[in-house]
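User: Teach me something about this protein's shape.
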Amino acid sequence: MKLEIAVLSGDGIGPEVTEQSKKVLDAIAHKFNHTFLYKEALVGAIAIDKTGDPLPKETLDICGNTDAVLFGSIGHPKYDNDPSAKVRPEQGLLKLRKSLGLYANIRPVKAYETLLDKSPLKKEIIEGTDISIYRELTGGIYFGEKKLSKDGETASDLCEYSKHEIERITHLAFKAAQTRRKKLTLVDKANVLESSRLWRKVVTEVGKQYDDVELDFLFVDNAAMQMILNPSQFDVILTENMFGDIISDEASVIGGSIGLLASASVGDKFALFEPIHGSYPQATGKGIANPIASILSAAMLLEHFELFEEAELIRKGVDKSLKLKISTPDINTEYENVTTSKVGDFIADYIEYPEDSNINFQNIHIGQSTII
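Assistant: First, the predicted structure itself:
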């Protein structure tokens, strides 16, 4: 298969972790005789600095004329710490999602057996957790009408959803549940919000078409509590934009590091794949950023194009790296010489030579890779 991939590395650690994803994709291409072509483009703070725009037209054009987008991260302290800034890095990502029609954000959350002790939650609570969160991405309060009174003392953000917006992501979530444990939980606030009551009505109606999937409901405050008390009860979670943002970030602590969590943002025509972590500017250039979330995002990209065997091989490489503690300091304190790049080297090496992973392990720890 030949794929053209727009690469928007962005800010902070984005370029470092995205480079490892490309390294792993190149190993997949070599092993399975695919061709992956990359088109680099600016986004976020670096794009503002160079063009004055967080999402230049050239970048948007590249994204619209490639098969998929591999995204890094955006954000810089000079914008993050200035609430009065009129142009901000995150505006680029919001505009990109809206322009490409990326209405569904999919975030897998898994408790890796080898990392159960890294989570702040008790092992017996998180063991067996395997959740897929479906977050609506282009509607709700983030995109609703925003008002600020003339005196600057009153503000409002409109949360608005249409039946169509709810239906399209609901179908995706139910179809996903059919391939998993056949349970879908809608997270809302239907006891207070009219928009949530519409969500509950529409999801219930759509659910009648998927009678093999169990549908239940949780208010978002209870869902947040249950995510900590008993996360393994969840299979597929479906929710609106802001609730999904919060719930999925809360779920990130289950695995022990936000550096493990990948995501896909999909629409009817386009798809974007990115780690859920931010730009982590304090770690930029130090070789300590965890690239696994970005690498797993690349695996989701392959799955999107039905390259399931290739995606599974990446996941096996990730599992092996975690088992052998070839990982960055956020989850590994035993081997201090494992850098961002070395994690990518090992997983790419595993893809090429899966039976030689113990040799690869030794080579990584003496600063070498078996790839020539």
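Now, about its shape. The first strand starts at residue 2 and ends at 10. The chain has 14 helices and twelve strands. If you'd like, I can walk through any region in more detail.
User: That's plenty for now, thanks!
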